[in-house]
Amino acid sequence: MTYELPDTDRCWPWVRYFLEHYMPVHRGGRANTIASYRIAFRQLRRYLYASIGERASRDLSLSALEPTLILDFLAWLQTKEGGSCKTSTRNVRLAALKSFFRCLELYRPAEERSPWLRLRHLPQKKTARPSRDHLETLELNRLFAQIHPESREGLRDLVLLTLLYNTGARASEIAGLKWKDISWNDPASILLHGKGGRPRRCPLWEGTILLLKRLRHEHGPDLDSNIFRNQRGGALTRHGIGRRIALYVGQARLSTPSMAGKKLTTHSLRHTTAIHLLESGADMHVIKAWLGHRSTRSTDHYLGLNLRAQRELLTQFSPPAVLEHLAPPDNPDQWLDDL
Question: Would you tell me which of 9, 154, 161, 268 could form a disulfide with 264, CB atoms 3.0–4.6 Å apart?
Answer without folding.
Answer: 268
